[in-house]
Amino acid sequence: MFKKITIPSSFSLIRKGRIHLLLHNDYKESLLHQGIEDIESFLNKNLLTTQYLNGRTPHPSIPIQDDQRVVIRKYSHGGVLRFLNPDLFSFGRRSFQELSLTEEIRSAGIPTIQPIGAIHQTVVPFLYRAYLLSLKISNAMDLVRYLKEIYAPFSTESLFRKRKMIKAAGALLRQFHQSGFYHRDLQLKNLLVAGDQILIIDFDRSCRKATISIPQRMRNLLRLNRSVDKWKRSGLPITKTDRWRFFLAYAGNNHEIHQAIRIALGTYSMGLLFHRIGWALKN
Fold first, then answer.
1. What is the pLDDT at residue 279?
2. Pairwise CA distance, residues 246 & 228, whole Å
3. Helix residue ranges, H only, 55-140
4. How far apart are CA 281 and CA 21, in angstroms?
5. pTM for the whole thing?
6. Quick one: 283 exposed, middle or buried, by C-beta within 10 A (0-12, 13-18, 19+)?
7. For labelling, which of 61, 119, 185, 243 has a CA lying 20 to 30 Å from the CA of 202?
């Protein structure tokens, strides 16, 4: 079942009945001792010390060892499907695949989270629940929250910090694509700020290729640009100049990328109209 998954050298594959776990060797004994294989009991035992991080659903954060906390992300469906079937998946090994890819991304020198485990819980044949475990990053916040908070109140310092982080985001995405990685859900909530560093997260269904073509790059960048438009409706302090600052940082000295961005943005507005209709219907 898991033969096609590349298991990182610092992880061990463990089976306990219908539960398969992929655990980092440095945290394996501690997690198993606390009963991580029975994830619901593990969560219930730690209710008093649990904190929550925002996501599609709140992610519990629980202390494990050496003043560290593990963040547990349960995979869930989006869209209409979440009302019919919130957390059951058929076939695949989503959490294992994401953990393996995240380790590849870390090995490429790209700032991201530190995964320490993945859980594949078979419910009935061909249906499973999945969880990804990672270390909590102290004082991290998503880019939406970061940009809103540094701008309240506005100052010359906040303007400088905003511009610096936007350029850093452009450079990070360039490095990400140049390393052959493609993000399936590139949005502002999947960019984290921790101190002066920006990180990219959430690689469910993402992949690595020999090269990322210019059209694929543009699809990723326009997905991110659409996320900016969505959050601007709730007060995100981003201007047209800020967007160009990001795109210029992404393109660097590559004139072909410069030209592709101009063409892509030229056709972007028509597609955005349909998304705005969808956003309005949700409200």
1. 46
2. 12
3. 81-84, 94-107
4. 40
5. 0.91
6. exposed
7. 243
